[in-house]
Amino acid sequence: MNKYVKESIFKVLMVISVFIVIAYLVMIVGINVVKGGIVLIKNPAVVVTAPGPKYLLGGEGGILHAILGSILMVVPSTCISCAASYLIALFLQVDYIKNKLSNKLRVVFDVLWGIPSIIYGIFILNILIITNRRGSLGAGIITLALLQMPVIVRYMDEALNSVPNGIRESAYSLGATRLETAIAATKYALPGIIAGVLMGMGRAMGDAASVIFTSGAGNSMPKGLSKSAASLPVLIFQQANSFYPSVREHAYAASFVLIFIVIILNTVSRLCSKHFQKFTLGSGK
Amino acid sequence: MPDKDIEIRIRDLNIYSMYKNKKHSHILKNINLDIPKNRLTSIIGPSGCGKTTLLKSINRLHDIQENIKVEGHVFIGDEDIYNPQRQVNEIRKMVGLIAQRPYPLPANIYDNIAFGPRLHGKRKKSELDDIVENCLKRTYLWEEVKDRLKEPAVALSIGQQQRLCIARALAVEPEVLLCDEITSALDPISSEKIESLLLSLRQDYTIVMVSHVLRQARRLSDYVVFLYFGEVVETGYASELFESPKDQRTRNYISGVMPGL
Questions:
Q1: Which residue from A36, A131, B54, B214 has the least number of CB within 10 angstroms?
Q2: CB contacts, 8 Å: A279 with chain B
Q3: Which residues in chain A have their CB less than 8 angstroms from residue B101's CB?
Q4: Closest CB to A175 among B64, B66, B89
Q5: CATH no. of B3-255
Q6: What is the mean pLDDT of each run of 10 residues along chain B (261 residues)?
Q7: pTM of the prediction?
């Protein structure tokens, strides 16, 4: 076959693939946004109202408990995870340990990343049972922190690895210690690091399976670290197949809110990366 | 060379690359070298002969590399820089390194220069301002950037970035400057600026330069070291070495006939 014909065939195939991906992205987002949007237009108060007494029977009240629960679980867990991941990612750099060992550790984190979230849930559930506790906001935070740690570690590690050696050598030759050099390299790697943190956050925000057993998943407002807490994905899981249309509507409202949060996270990540990229090599004038 | 003129003494330096904890290849073989103070010394030699390796051994940059083993001694002044008692970052502070291509730190122009002094405990703004201004003036960059000190350093042209890197190295008040083919990424006009800058710096600093451009080495150097497959073949003042090389290999390299390369 003529190589120019080959090229045109591949071009057509590529365009079709891109089209399919965009089409289903539009459908996924579109259906949820439309369905959730209708609910929110009809009754915008649903996102700021706490659940009422007949919540699961008649859909009384709103989903504020799940929104608050999600935020209260995800934000602290991301903070904990970030701090731990940063230390691990620094340790994985060859300045601290041998390359061979860090490569082995990377495999460990890749495996952890691949483990389904329900397994994390089961693990924390076992600890809760052994220590004779019930699912709570605190346990949810710990589960989500563990869940997003491998993602953030690997992103940070890749970002730090992609820092040109010359940057490190410059810092070293000015008399910087390993830690000071690592901090200089971190500034260079910030766009990638921020992307990693937000990826981790996104994973935690959207995950139902890990917190279904561990956070208690109640229908009340979060009251404390040791009390049960709801979250948006769990709410969708529990209410999307309800017999009552008014309860199902809450699930759609919740999915709308989730999509909204994901878009916000993405936008923030892009803006931050853009800001910090100004300082990295090759960003041009 | 009289003793008081010597800044760097390299004694019995052997560098090996390691593979699975075994000595794999012998990169530098029994280097014994004296480098004169406040002069510009060029290390010349064919590619892969260990020029950069030798240069980096003068500020212990091999410490961060796995698979490199260094044996022997390097003295700067009277101090053995491979003395395990000394903190390596204090040693590196005495020796500035300028790389082949500029690597500005991810910060603005001002913070790039102030990075080093800040590491070593200078925090006062007025003091840092003075250092930044002096170093930029010293590298003839001040007039070009004084109005945009807060702009990202990568926004400068590559030649300006290289001068910024030199200014950054000067900010920690080193005694020795190591230059690793610092003009190889630059256009001829920027190279010329850098060359005249090096000539003006050599009265205050001991400069060791790696160059694979023979004409450049001839133009700039006071003292020349010819390195060939990890061995020092010949050293001498530039005029002598370039005009009447003693060793056959040096003669071949300088005249451009290098059998086997």
A1: A131
A2: 106-108, 152-154
A3: 166
A4: B89
A5: 3.40.50.300
A6: 83 86 84 90 88 89 83 88 86 89 90 91 90 90 89 89 92 91 87 90 90 86 90 89 87 74 49
A7: 0.85
